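Field reference: sequence -> structure
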Amino acid sequence: MFKYFFLLFFFLLSIANADNRDKIIKKLKNTYSVSFSFEQSISGKIENGDCIIKYPKKIFCKYKKSNNKILVSNGKSLVITTRTGYYRYPLKNTPLYFILDKNFLMEKIYNFEETIIDNSLINYKILEDDNEINIFFDNKNFNLLGWQTKDIYQNQSTTYLSGIKINQKVNDDLFNIPIQN
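Structure field:
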């Protein structure tokens, strides 16, 4: 009898997990842009600001109180500018290359095991090209809530999203790479 209960429990659990996957996939398929506020912790240093993601692979972030820091990706390059510096990287060499590709995320969500955290977050750990990326979704509305990666300097980076707005109109000029001074 216990054996049947055990099998029924895991069957129901796998249905629930498949249901979460399907809802997240549906949400991602219907999402073309996401605007949000963020809080980012990199090796204990906290920064915050506002971002807009436009799929595929475009992002614009303006940091608050951080030396006029701006992060921009046009889908190919990632540029970080401050008052004192200009840094340009091939996007494909960063974890954002994967995070900003919703088709990649949808494919990986089907292939990796989910973990429910505190009954509020759905987590998928994605291993790709020596990158370990944890992606977090809301357990109620299935919005993307954040990610955890290692940056190009191998610093642990955790980004939490809030004030999420889906499919807001976005000016494409926002994703033009700034010119180095």
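Note: DSSP finds three helices and eleven strands in the chain.
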